[in-house]
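quick one, three chains, predict together pls
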Amino acid sequence: MSILGNRVLRKEDPRFLRGEASYVENLELEGALTITFVRSLLAHARIVSVDTSAAEALPDVQVFTGADIDVSTGPPPIPVLEQRMRRPVVATDVVRFVGDIVAVVVSPDRATGADAAELVMVEYDPLPLAVTTADAVKDEVLLYPEIGTNVAGRAGRSDHDPRLFDGCDVVVRDTLVSQRLAACPLEVRSAAAEVGSDGRITAWLSTQVPHRDHFGLSATLGIDPGQFRVVAPDVGGGFGAKSAFGAEETIVVWLARHLGTPVRWTETRSESMTTLPHGRGQRLELALGGTRDGKLLAYRMDILQDAGAYPGVTAFLPNLTALLASGVYAIPRIEVDGVSVVTNTAPLTTVRGAGRPEASQAIERMVDLFAAEIGMDPVEVRRTNFIPKDAFPYKTASGAEYDSADYEAALELALRAVGYEEVRAEQQRRREEGSTQELGIGISSYTEITNPLGEEEYGEVEITADGGALVHTGSFSHGQGHETTFAMIAAERLGLPIEKVTVLKGDTDDVPKGTGTFGSKSTQIGGMAARGAADGVVERAKVLVGDYLEASAADVVLDTSQGRFHVAGTPQPALSWAELAERSAADGRLDELKVQHDFKAPPTFPFGVHIAVVEVDVETGRVELQRLVAVDDAGTLINPLIAEGQVHGGVFTGVAQALYEEFVYDEEGNPLSGTFVGYAFPSTADLPGWEAIEMETPTPANELGVKGIGESGTIGATPAVWNAVLDALAPYGVRHVDLPCNGENVWRALQEAKA
Amino acid sequence: MIPAAFSYERAGSVEEAIELLGSDEDAKVLAGGHSLLPAMKLRISRPTVLVDIGRLDDLRYVREDGDRIAIGALTRHSALARDPVLAARCALVPQTVELIGDPQVRHRGTIGGSVAHADPASDLGAVVLALDAELVARGPDGERTIQAAEFFTGPFTSALGPQELLTEIRVPAVERGVYLKHQRSARDWATVGVAAADVGGRIQVGLASMGPTSLRASAVEEALASGASAEDAAARAAEGAEPPSDVSASSEYRAHLARVLVRRALEQL
Amino acid sequence: MTHVAITVNGQPHEAEVEPRQLLVYFLRETLGLKGTNVGCDTSSCGACTVLVDGDSVKSCTVLTAQADGSNVTTIEGLAADGELHPVQQAFHEQHALQCGYCTPGFVMATVSLLQENPSPSEEEIRRGLEGNLCRCTGYHNIVRAVEAAARAGA
């Protein structure tokens, strides 16, 4: 009986439950000095002078400026993006967002650092501002005058085919904003570094990508990679915001080298809210056309992406949005134009969903608008246009090659689970009695791309002297449960109990390479790499067993139910892993039971249907989410307990975007949502339970049949809730509400519809 | 995250607290700390001396005093929430307290601290105004009673003198009272808060987050006193108010919310 | 400096502390109890929740000096003889943690909630935990864990 597919409780839980986790801030680092950043209070200004004298008058305080730390971050990682918009890690001439680093304080402790940072006096010469993308795209105020434009990247084609909507009886249009969000990992960024007595540098980072950091920091700082070790210990969440090192981590490592003493930094939450890269920030102008009997024919998206002051991979995201434009529908003609511009705001990055929530928000809202326009039930419009389940693999008009799916089955499951007819009946009853508490039901059927870059992941399995197994993985779990899931995968191949399989990760000395964890790819490439390595170890074991049992390796079998090797047809003599390990260790051959395996596969496309039921108070605009049914299909589920947890968390993020959160700047580029008070991060009291239902349509992309699931919840949930709110407001003539579609935004939409 | 440095004194009595407050013009009282410490951690508030009155247990009580209920200023929100006297005689207070912050905040925050902090968004501020509460203060010149209507003088500013300590809040026994709070999310400050109570036959309404201080909705009260319906009276909820525009809401939306919530509060009374 | 005498997890401690030292840093840095986490700077997230004289309190919003004379329980003080406390066990069984950063705070808040209300409804649980924020779990399994802990008589 295979352990795969079981709801196995997590191996990693005890240390977190007992308060014994090793987050970077928990590390004992003797003699470490504290780093505090002095950050710009203006969004765009020349730096006239930096006076550090008052700060340095405090005992044992040193202050470094851009003149001292002359390092810039590397170019954006994708060659088609504007390569010249680099960030000096400490600003010297100009600051480009509120939060840009202008000086670095080194002090014996945190309190002194905070006191000293306040005493650094910076004189600024304010510059004109381009805070919004609408302003930035005009190219009037330039963040990089020498480059001559604020455009950091483009997607699709900018010429519009005037015949795109030929044959369409109906074209619906809307402009949607997928608002800027803060990732809000509960653990903020934290970093520490020291130079060992052997001259080797070790950096401890709260990161999702220790190997990427290792590679990038070595390159940026000119460190011999062999003399550099990155350790990601326990990390308290990332959500994409920790998928690239920044100016801060660069400075920490630079200072460790420069000072020769260990240094450490942990940001405050306010610092994190305002300077940890944000997510979304896309404006989409949309037009969807089709026939009166519900067939979609053509779709155009014009995307304006906010790339923040220092563009990274975000400038590329409209390409992912474009790729997923079609959603789950067979739309014959799709045209996308995207442009990413820098603005005087904090950098943005690939936060949970990274370009795909925007795509599903867009198509799902437009499908509902189209349905309303032609007077057809949105369920029927969806059914009419689903890519049929026998059409896979299917290439969409925007270039995505979907692997496997059954959208109709997901829709059926979801409709049944929510009791669609009953909800509609209750909605009708309330409308008839003129209730001010309207009910709305909203559907989103989505697909998304996981392992979007088709990456290769590293796995290694080795047998230990006591007959257990170590799995070294290049994936990096920061909440996703790989210590359990990958142990399950390896245990199943090896025939070992899961208690005897330990997963190691995060230390570049221990794992030679890896891609880290983001893009919902880890099980499908990291899990498969571990599986391949385990299979490789079994093959090597058979050679050793053959030697010991005087048989040919080809005749040796592994009885995985017992974890014992024997000659085929002859159950005895047999060697257990423990016995084999002992014997081969005695012969100096234990290291033959160590195999590395790289696994690479193309992207996969999980899918699903989410249905939301909301209650809207049409007097106050307040929206309460009553139910969220989530049907998600991510192929084979190795551990449904963990997979479900990922759906719950993803749905949370999607609902938070729909109803609560928005990171706001004022016209001067001052962040107004810079704390957990200003930013409406929902609590238990704001949300219902989730009704998560699994479906499994395996992918042909790997032998396990697994796709990714980490971002699905986010991608499916936002449009379901958004559609539900619009559904509730349909009788009032409302066809658009800005996100978050709650409170004032609902009220304004009602006011406008009355006018 | 780390407050600016300050000196710290523990008061063993109200008298000692008053004296210690006189030691420095930037001295402040530390009660539950859940209004003051957050401000200090962001370095918005930078007192030079903190006078910790947390030991003054004789300021923690709830007792009937004729037709009033006397509440010691250091009574914690969590104690108010389950107090049987308040539940029986002025349930508006425990009902409101349940909406303040969260359980951890309510285990530490005090009614005196909340009220004296004079945050215009404070739930209890709207309630003490609606109830025409009496605020008892003690200072170097002895004890005095300040009427709620005179207590909130500006944003985060009360009528308390620099050396005065709020020692008691006296509320009337009230059978009908309701507090409604609209928030962006459950743990948020009130976007708008409305406290309505029947105080000795007169309907009184207090507002949170509708101006630079907690406010009485006087126009509403006048309308009701001259016989207007709840709906017509509530239409005047924003009169005389200057609701702020901030990241939570615009001034216009707040005015609208006030009208809706006042109407609902009056209907629920 | 101010003198404090605080009992933490049953152990008495005395120290001279800076007035501005927050209780959470006393626990983490002076006593080396790193299980209590700092998650924000506005008393919003509850990651720092401990019990002070039996009540759940955000230790980032208490000065060490204020806690003089108190009895503090941290996450490290919950498990008895290495056995997980029923609330910890329930969180494990219901998969109520992912990255673990908010977990000690949620566990302590739950212990306090169940002390005050041994059989809470779902609504009471959701209201009772609004002082704690989680980004990973979407709260669903945390609520299930509290229900399970209540059934187990935690």
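The radius of gyration of chain B is 18 Å.
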